[in-house]
Amino acid sequence: MAFLCKGFLRAAAKRGLSSQFVQTPLKSQRSLSSMDPLPNKLLQLPSSLIKSTLDSATRFPQDNPHFSWDSLLACLPSLSSDKARLVLEWKLEKMLKGNERDYDQYLYLMSLCEKIRNASLAMHVFTSMEVHGIKPTTSLFNSLIHACLSSKDSITALSLFEIMQNSEDYKPNDETYETFIIGFSSLGNTDAMKSWYLAKKAAGYCATFQTYESLVSGCIKARDFDGADRFYDEIKSTGIMPSETVLENLLEGLCRRRRFNQVKEFIKSRLEVWQEISVKMAEKVVGLYSEHGKVEEMEELLSTVVESGQAVTVLSQVNSGIIRMYATLNRLDDVEYSVGRMLKQGLSFRCADDVEKVICCYFKEEAYDRLDQFLEHIKRTHKLTKSTYDLLVAGYRRAGLSQRLDTVIKDMELAGVWR
User: Fold this and answer.
1) Is 63 inside any structural domain?
2) Which one of 46, 93, 94, 150 has the largest count of C-beta atoms within 10 Å of its C-beta?
3) Distance (Å, rounded) from C-alpha 123 to C-alpha 119?
4) Considering the entire predicted model, what is its pTM?
5) Considering the domain boundaries, does residue 228 fall inside one?
6) CA dihedral for 74, 77, 78, 81, sign (positive or negative)
7) Which domain-ending residue is among 167, 200, 228?
8) Is the pLDDT confidence value at 229 over 90?
9) What integer is the mean pLDDT of 219-223?
10) Cβ neighbours for 386, distance < 8 A, ≥ 6 positions apart
11) Of 167, 198, 218, at which residue does a domain stop?
């Protein structure tokens, strides 16, 4: 069986697996600061110098006291696909040269290959382990399958599963089926995703939080809203408390279908059970109401989140949505009232785009004195960006207001954004 496994893996490696790189954030407690100069250096170097630079950093540790493998991992998403591959290749070469026998080290390296979506490199890690006498395990196969699916190579992933089925030492387990469910969910292939879910149950494994999250998100991504509803009903029937991710996806489905009453009931029930809604939930509802001009519903949502004592981020999201909506509708009185209400709540504008929408509303109404008052109020809590100043300059020029134009230009010079 080991011979069969080796033969297949080498053939697959020769065929060439997809090595498409997609930047995926890696969690790290370290920042790319002056205390970690190597990652910043790698960003500037050509690919041809990556490995030699890493060799120098480890060969003379006394000259590079801040060298850290963790900092290199944090920098992977910022590197090009070729540089990220070279960093991981370098790590594998060092492990093999040092006759590394720690199974977990190889498993971790394969997980990094999956994160940068390079299945061919994951395959290289796998075959290198076999050559060095480290026997494959179910976990290693699962990691390799995950890398293949993340690289959209489902054919190789399925072939690996067949090898596992025919083996004695690395049979498919719960994680194997879960990996396929997650993979096909991410790919938006709901038919395959559902088939693997049924296969998981047929194999005697129970659905987990992760299973249902993948099933529901996969259905929503594919606009299979009925499927998402069925899985949600299944979650409730099992007595499992749905996760926040599941609920956010369900809410997204309701918003896409414009189920306004159900959206309102969803938010109400969420607050009754959990006493809070997430920023993502607020964002989806605000987006729905904004797209369809549901002013009254937006105001009602704001009253609800204020009364229920929601987090500042949620309050800010809803306030901004209301202000943008009134500005788009050119309802200047309502804009000013909403801005004043937001400021009284101790909040400020979330982004320059919101400020600029309000400024455009003032220009359309030719309410220049009121615009001056607005700018004075928000300058206390919001720093104007160059794009906002540029908008003011263009608006005052168009209106022929030379005195106000001169004032804005002076403000830009003081702020260091005039050029």
Assistant:
1) yes
2) 150
3) 6
4) 0.76
5) no
6) positive
7) 167
8) yes
9) 94
10) 412, 417
11) 167
Handedness of CA 172, 173, 176, 182 (dihedral sign): positive
- Distance of alpha carbon 42 from alpha carbon 47, whole angstroms: 9
Mean pLDDT computed over 133-152: 91
> How much is the average pLDDT of 76-82?
77
Number of independent structural domains in the chain: 2
Q: Region 302-331: what's the mean pLDDT? A: 94
The pair of structure tokens assigned to 252 is 């997204």
Tokens of 195: 């088939």
Query: Domain limits at 39?
Result: 1-167
| Residue carrying structure tokens 């003032």 | 362
Residues 6+ apart with CB under 8 A from 400: none
- Assigned domain for 379 exists: no
Q: What is the DSSP letter of 30?
A: -
Q: Is residue 83 part of a domain?
A: yes
Give strand ranges (E) for 284-405. Answer: none
The token pair at 166 is 């025919």
Q: Is the pLDDT of residue 61 over 60?
A: no
d(CA 53, CA 45): 9
State which amino acid sits at residue 9.
Answer: L
**Tokens for 137?**
């395990």
Largest CA distance in the chain: 84
3-state SS assignment for residue 279 = helix
| Res 79: pLDDT | 77
